[in-house]
Amino acid sequence: MNPLLGRRQTQPRVDLDTDVYTLARQRTAYVMDTFDEIIVAFSGGKDSTAVLNIALEVARSDPRFARHLPLRVVHFDEEAIPFETEEYVRRVSQRDDVALEWYCLPVKHRNACSRSHPYWWPWAPEDEAKWCRPMPPEAITHLDGFPINPPEARLTIPDLNGLLAPGRASTAMLMGIRAQESVIRRRAVSRRKVDNYIVRYDGPTGGGNIFKAYTIYDWQTEDVWTAAKLNGWDYNRAYDRMAMAGVTPYQQRCSPAFGEEPLNKIHTYATCFPEVWEKMSERVPGIGAAVRYARTELWAFGSRPDKPAHVTWPDYIAHYVSRWTRPAEQTMIAGRLRETIRRHYRHTTDPILPTSPHPRSGVSWEFLLTLAMRGDFKERRQETMKIRPEAKAREWASYTAELTRLLADGVTAAELGHPRALPPDPSMLIPTEYRQEAEQ
Q1: Where is the Phosphoadenosine phosphosulphate reductase domain (predicted)?
Q2: Which span out of 116-120, 194-198, 223-227, 366-370 was modeled with the highest average pLDDT?
Q3: Does 6 fall in a domain?
Q4: What global pTM score does this model have?
Q5: Radius of gyration of the chain from its Cα atoms, rounded to whole angstroms
Q6: CB half-sphere exposure, 350, CA atoms < 13 A
Q7: Is 9 within the bounds of a domain?
Q8: 148: helix, coil or strand?
């Protein structure tokens, strides 16, 4: 059974007296004690910077960890990235305690700029004239088991990770995955009480000996930058440029701008990284239209098209799914939508509303419309569920106020795709602990 659809319950959140930095060091030490080999997955971004530096601190802290030095660090260069990232990765590669492998492979990447060309491949030999940057001199362009041709056979980075540890030795990949980033990632680290941050790698190239370790999974964005400041860590100077351009720390990305979520900030690449933008602006099919219209309702950013009054929400969503031309993509998107709706009804019997996310599931029809329009093939777009009590009260107030308006306008259960009659008194849906504050 798909764990997202089954009845498994996540473990409750437990607040500890220990700070997240100490916990990350303890987890890293446990991983280094437990596994034969360690790999740090290093993108050059802020989260993998924290993982790398903590791993190095722990590896140097006790003689029993010396077997992991120099630390094996793997970097997949995604080509359409700032030169500051390349410069930072090079500085890391020159450290005596790091053995960095700098891969420049034509891995499969999502191109959300075009529905007719939904993928692109950095460093693809057939696109050499379009490369955004010269290939770094440190580049490794071959990995046993990775197919170069035909392009359709090329693997994504998650799918090829098993090729990095083809032997029988138990291997842990330290990764900068944080629960703050999405509901899916939060669930991934809340299934078990013990070793909840260690997950077996189940990709197609795995041999059963590889595990992913999310040693900073409970960190917030503020924790990452605080640790870098207090410890004097080197970091990617691309973040300085984005900060000067007014991009908030929560929106800063150093990855290629062609995926569903990065498109929202594609204009910042022209402002922050003009040296690479000239080539980026011609790198993938559809990029010209995306630059002009990515922040409009065409890509469901900023605004979304209005649903006709005579059309139900399920039919409206189905219309946008049908606009995807490839059957495989339609099937994938439709499956994701059904999964999200089922997840909502496992949390509650309340209806899904047009704009207000349900406080228990985080689902709204507007959110589902975004999935139908963008695709979200990498599952970067997740339901919003706040955990602070005061936020929950506001969410219930917003949800019940919208349902009250809909009832007054004569909206039916069928229009909302709800399988039962709509509740006549929305205020009774508010849990007792939030009712007084929500009704103020």
Answers
A1: 38-241
A2: 223-227
A3: no
A4: 0.79
A5: 23
A6: 26
A7: no
A8: coil
